[in-house]
Design brief:
Layout (H helix, E strand, L loop, with lengths): L1 H32 L4 E4 L3 H7 L5 E3 L8 E4 L5 H5 L4 E3 L2 H6 L3 E8 L2 E6 L1 H6 L6 H4 L4
Parallel strand pairs: 1-2, 1-3, 3-4, 4-5
Antiparallel strand pairs: 5-6
Length: 136
Amino acid sequence: MKKIFLIILAFTSLQSSDIYELQMYQNILTTLFQKDKILVYSRDTDEIELIKTSTNIKLTTKCSDADVLIGKNFSYPEFTECKKPIFATSYRSYMEQENAFAAFYWRKGRPQIQFKLEPINRYKLFLPENFKKYSK
């Protein structure tokens, strides 16, 4: 009985973190891009599954059609050819990618968010005052 309770508790907490992450994506992307609907390209399976449930963020099959790229690994050829803004889901990809304007990742079980002002200005994105405390 105790094992079943722990499994249910773990599953529920995983789902709630996914809901939190999706709401965060929707809020940040629609605010930064000043659009109601955002087209996203990703090769990250976890992000694809999460984005499929969104009403404001839609997946596209072509990098060139996307408003933004989301994921951890941007070493695929289509990413280097497609010069789109990147929303990184790992600190490493955030630091390595020149086009990365934001990152959301988990460190020691806590959510971390960061913004880079240079790519935000280059892509003419809107960073509201309440997000500026997370920027470099």
